[in-house]
Amino acid sequence: MTPELVEAVFREAYGRAVAVLTRLLGDIGSAEEAVQDAFVVALQRWPADGVPPAPAGWIVTTARNRAIDLMRREATRDDRHRQAARLAEPDPPPEEGAVRDDRLRMLFTCCHPALALPARVALTLRLVGGLTTAEIAHAFGVPEATMAQRLVRAKGKIRDARIPYRVPTEADLPDRLPGVLAVVSLVFTEGHTASSGSGLVRPDLCAEAIRLGRQLVELMPDEPEALGLLALMLLTEARRPARVSATGDLVPLTEQDRSRWDAALIAEGQDLVRRCLRRNAPGAYQVQAAIQAVHDDAATAADTDWRQVVVLYDHLLTLAPSPVVALNRAVAVAEVDGPAAGLAALEGVELPRSHLLPAVRADLLRRLGRTGEALDAYAAALDLTGNASERAFLERRRDELSAAHRSAQA
Question: Which residue, 208, 243, 295, 395, is the most exposed by fewest CB within 10 angstroms?
Answer without folding.
Answer: 395
